[in-house]
Design a protein that fits this description.
Distance between the termini: 21 Å
CATH topology: Purple Acid Phosphatase, chain A, domain 2
Bound molecules: fe (ii) ion
Strand order of the largest sheet: 5-6-9-10-12-11
Oligomer: single chain
CATH class: Alpha Beta
CATH superfamily: Metallo-dependent phosphatases
CATH architecture: 4-Layer Sandwich
Helix content: 10-25%
Strand content: 15-25%
Radius of gyration: 17 Å
Number of domains: 1
Number of helices: 5
């Protein structure tokens, strides 16, 4: 099974990226996907902040791809909260466009299970003594906000996302030979670059990494949010972050093989 994956398209988000570049890159990704003809396409969150029609405009580029399409929410898709947009609205929008919403339910394909969650952050990727909160003008909050600060609700949301992911893994692990986990936020502190230490509190949670390592059949993890091109094994789980908004923009491939050991690898960044 050949799995094409990418995250963090940030389409038409003028305050974050160059909209023209993002539009160009997602068209290029769609063209390359048609050449590759993967068995599975995965989008690991932050497709867009959610202006009207953006999902339809860009996800329809993958309409004629004859494969199973999976997606999860990112914090941008969910408008920076665990709420109705994340829980219900995205599921409907994505279903209309032929994408299975992994946050709501796992998916099993030819003996491989796929589970997913937006995840969240709780400060456990940072050392508080090394971290400083930085005030910024936040377009999402409509005013000043402090990046790097953790609110009481963040631990609650992280626990909720963890419990749901654990339940999804438990639901399928007896029935599959391997599991691919898709998490928008960063699951391991080792994946963060030290020079971005001030963003660490809001990048993810160690608890997602611990959860993945506690389930033997989890063999790969596709994550987003960090905007860095990285492939790194952690305790037998091959983890990869390929983002269209990254420098350079990239996508990745995982491949599973039914006979013998399963082989996971990356190739052909954009
Ligand atoms: Fe993100």
């Amino acid at each position: 099974m050949r799995i094409l994956f990418s995250s963090d398209w940030h389409l038409e988000e003028k305050f974050v990226v160059d909209p023209k570049r993002q539009s160009r890159d997602v068209h290029l990704l769609a063209a390359q996907a048609r050449e590759i003809q993967p068995d599975v396409l995965i989008v690991a969150g932050d497709i867009t902040w959610g202006e009207d029609g953006v999902y339809e405009k860009y996800l329809s580029l993958f309409d004629d791809l004859n494969c199973i399409k999976l997606a999860i929410a990112g914090n941008h898709d969910a408008a920076f909260e665990v709420g109705p947009r994340h829980e219900e609205e995205l599921a409907m929008v994505l279903a209309d466009l032929g994408f299975h919403y992994l946050d709501a339910a796992p998916c099993c394909i030819d003996g491989v299970g796929f589970v997913g969650t937006m995840g969240w952050y709780d400060g456990t990727l940072s050392n508080p003594t090394e971290t400083k909160a930085i005030p910024i003008s936040d377009p999402f909050a409509g005013g000043p906000r402090v990046i790097g600060s953790i609110q009481p609700r963040d631990a609650v949301w992280t626990a909720k996302m963890l419990a749901r992911l654990d339940a999804h893994i438990c639901d399928i692990e007896e029935h599959v030979r391997a599991i691919v986990a898709v998490i928008h936020h960063v699951p391991f502190v080792e994946f963060l670059d030290h020079d971005l230490f001030w963003t660490h509190p809001i990048m993810g949670s160690r608890r997602f990494g611990q959860l993945l390592l506690s389930h033997q059949k989890v063999r790969a993890c596709i994550y987003g949010h960090a905007h860095t091109r990285r492939v790194q094994e952690m305790g037998g789980v091959l983890c990869a972050n390929h983002c269209l908004v990254g420098h350079p923009p990239s996508w990745g491939m995982l491949e599973t093989r039914a006979s013998g050991p399963e082989i996971w690898f990356q190739r052909n960044p954009l």
